[in-house]
Amino acid sequence: MVSIFLRSLLFNVLFYAVLVCLVIMALPTFLMPPRATLTVAKWWANATLVLMRVICNIRVEFRGVENIPAGPLVIASKHQSFWETIVLPQFFDRPIFILKRQLTYIPVFGQFLVKTGMIAIDRTAGVKALLDMTRRARDAVRGGCQLVIFPEGTRRAPGAAPDYKTGFAQIYAACGVPCLPIALNSGLFWPRRTFMRYPGTLVVEFLAPLPPGLPKDEYLSRVRNAIEDATGRIVEAGRREQEQLLGRAPSYVPSGG
């Protein structure tokens, strides 16, 4: 564990050092189209993957990339870690996220979020926020963007009981485009609320797309079952691998609901 602690410490120092350097490099992109800013964001994602592999012994495997449709899209992803918000955008041409408004108040970084068209919402506004979010998401997707949604609304530890919100089904219906479900096990290696990084194989699975126009209840059931079944499978495989690497079962995440 001492080695993992030191590796995690080194990783975090370099991770944020790279971020600061890229933010400085990206300043001129405020005067350019959003695509220039997104290009720098992809550099950050690639640098992060290299640091994970070299320092933390975390290999990343992307499965089902061939399932990603071209054009406008709604992406419904499992959310276990900050990691997927960094790396997933590199697979899409014009990715946007729905995020809490407070993130846009972060100096410089928040302005980049606004520049790239991210949809910031006030979570305290209730129904009004949902209606505004749905309208803005529909307009963005119809304009050619790929909208990344985390249906549970926040990060959930691996093994925690799923908590899917119904609002994302309204967004899917309003957008009228296919939905790409994504399963992952990132929380085993980049857990929430800690700086520790654990070795193993982080897996992302791009699952079979769902067609537009499904009834709400059918859509909710199909997207939830697809994500949870695949996530359960790859989380269990990741746990077994970590038991072999660490010599014990990981104790930093729940093992069940």
Describe this structure in words.
The chain has helices at residues 2-26, 34-56, 83-87, 109-115, 127-142, 167-175, 216-246, and strands spanning 58-63, 73-77, 95-100, 119-121, 146-149, 179-184, 200-206. With 257 residues, it is α/β, with parallel strands linked by helices. It has a single domain (58-246), classed as Rossmann fold (3-Layer(aba) Sandwich). The protein has a seven-stranded mixed beta sheet with strand order 1-7-6-2-5-3-4. β3, α4 and β4 (119-121) form a beta-alpha-beta unit. α1 (2-26) packs antiparallel against α2 (34-56). The protein is globular, with a radius of gyration of 18 Å.
What are the SSEs and their pairings?
Elements (H helix, E strand, L loop, with lengths): L1 H25 L7 H23 L1 E6 L9 E5 L5 H5 L7 E6 L8 H7 L3 E3 L5 H16 L3 E4 L17 H9 L3 E6 L15 E7 L9 H31 L11
Parallel strand pairs: 1-7, 2-5, 2-6, 3-4, 3-5
Antiparallel strand pairs: 6-7
Q: Could you say which structural class the secondary elements and strand pairing correspond to?
A: alpha/beta
Strand order, largest beta sheet: 1-7-6-2-5-3-4
Number of self-contained structural domains: 1
- Kindly state the number of beta strands: 7
Unreliable residue stretches: 253-257
- So what's the CATH class? Alpha Beta
Span between N and C termini?
26 Å
Overall average pLDDT: 91
Largest sheet: 7 strands, mixed
| Relative helix content | 40-55%
Strand content: 5-15%
